[in-house]
Amino acid sequence: MNETESLALRALKDQQFRASPDSPLTEEQQEKFTGLSYYPYDPNMVLTLNVVPVTENRPIQIMTTTNDIRVYNRYATFTFTLEGQPVTLTIYESPHGYFLPFVDGSAPDETYPAGRYLEPEELADGRFLVDFNQAYNPLCAYNDGWNCPITPPENRTNAHIRAGEMNPDPAWAESHSAPNSPV
Predict the structure, then answer these.
(1) Residue 179 near residue 150, CB atoms below 8 Å
(2) Could you tell me if residue 19 is inside a domain?
(3) Using an 8 Å Cβ cutoff, are 116 and 164 in contact?
(4) Which single residue of 48, 137, 159, 181 could bond 114 by disulfide (Cβ 3.0 to 4.6 Å)?
(5) SS3 of residue 23 by DSSP
């Protein structure tokens, strides 16, 4: 996705958060909503990656923000270099598709402490498109009425992934803590 497409999606998401009856925001939040906060689009954070399939595709139980458990399958890992250090992340598979939760060094100051999410795209040649500009906060970042998976330890890195969505503006977002989410 290029910058123009990315910015158009961000504007559409803001409109849906502000006005849709299906918005994850409360009515009070919608009234105060001024837009989501994002890092500037970075074309270097659009990665086409070779993955290493997980040989033991065993299920992993991932705790949620309300202490429920969701089950995912480890699908593959990939490694890239950021800030001069290798970063390895795991892609999970669920009945809904591929899922990439991660916490990076920008949490909790710039990004949500429990992690951000992506849905990487498998390409025809077996590689994956991972566009960190599309990283988004789980719905629980906006209010405590949502139940969201907490990023597992294997998908935490000290490197700063400065792309995608940032912490919501406290002027309209309710304050939260992110349970069980040490960085």
Answers:
(1) yes
(2) no
(3) yes
(4) 181
(5) coil
Query: Helix (H, G, I), strand (E, B), or coil: what is residue 98?
Result: strand
Query: Residue 18, exposed/middle/buried by CB under 10 A (0-12, 13-18, 19+)?
Result: middle
Q: Which structural domain range is residue 51 located in?
A: 39-155
Read off the tokens for 23: 């918005």
- Are 168 and 137 contacting, i.e. CB atoms less than 8 angstroms apart? yes
Query: 88-117 pLDDT, tens per residue?
Result: 999 999 888 999 999 999 999 999 998 999
Q: What is the DSSP string of 19-81?
A: H-TT-SS-HHHHHH-----BPPP-GGGEEEE--EE-SS--EEEEEBTTS-EEEEEEEEEEEEE
Q: How much is the average pLDDT of 57-82?
A: 90
**Number of domain units in the chain:** 1
Does residue 14 contact residue 30 with C-beta atoms inside 8 Å?
Answer: no
